[in-house]
Amino acid sequence: MELLLFFRTFLYVFGTLFAVMNPIGAVPVFLSIIQHCKSYEGMISLAKRTSVAVFVTLTAFALLGEWIFKFFGSTIDAFAIAGGILLFRMALEMLSGNLSTVKISHEEEEEAVNLSEIAIVPLAIPLISGPGSITTVMIHMAKNASYLGKAAVMLAILITSFLVYVVLRSAEKVQQRLGKVGIRLITRMMGLILASMAVQLVINGIKGAFGL
Questions:
Q1: Distance from C-alpha of 20 to C-alpha of 37, rounded to nearest angstrom
Q2: Residue 64: count of CB within 10 angstroms of its CB
Q3: Do residues 120 and 60 touch, judged by C-beta distance below 8 A?
Q4: What's the mean pLDDT when you consider all of the chain?
Q5: Using the 8-state DSSP alphabet, how is residue 124 labeled?
Q6: Which of 49, 68, 57 is nearest to 129 (CA)?
Q7: End-to-end CA, the chain
Q8: 3-state SS, residue 24
Q9: Backbone angle region of 160, left / alpha / beta, with phi > 0 → left and psi within -120 to 50 → alpha
Q10: From the record, what ranges are coiled-coil (predicted)?
Q11: What is the pLDDT of residues 108-140, one digit of tens each?
Q12: Residue 125: what pLDDT?
């Protein structure tokens, strides 16, 4: 029973995180930024630094989430409703085939001046591990009281961070094979999945808040 809960939690968090992060949708931005790289090794290093920054960011918020809730006097249900609304807004933008403006702005992209800064801002934060993914890990980490449930959330963070590295280091091949149309199609599909998860998050938050 506990093992089943572990896999259910892992699959749900992994699916939500991957849809929110949408590393495939981030490929065009990554390719425009790697013009700063002077070698293939530099591009690989940038992809690696970005994935590590994503993992560290999400892990930090996952571990500190419950403390943040207590500090600001917020409940998990209230945060779930707010997070669901945020995710739904992002999903609507993804359904239009666009990279969410909640995640990145042109100003943030232009401010990066070296590889170390680019890997953290804007690639890791807020392009990939933005408000949506941070909200997701905080909510699910707080909702799972058992150590097995929390381990499932951490495993989902680890695997999605690794997939970010895999996709970014193969960014040129991904764009060549999928093309801009293919990337937009996948972004729309991710947006549809994210929209359904966002609605469910709001429903669960309302049920918990009103004891339904």
A1: 27
A2: 13
A3: no
A4: 85
A5: I
A6: 57
A7: 25
A8: coil
A9: alpha
A10: none
A11: 444 444 666 778 877 888 789 988 899 999 999
A12: 86
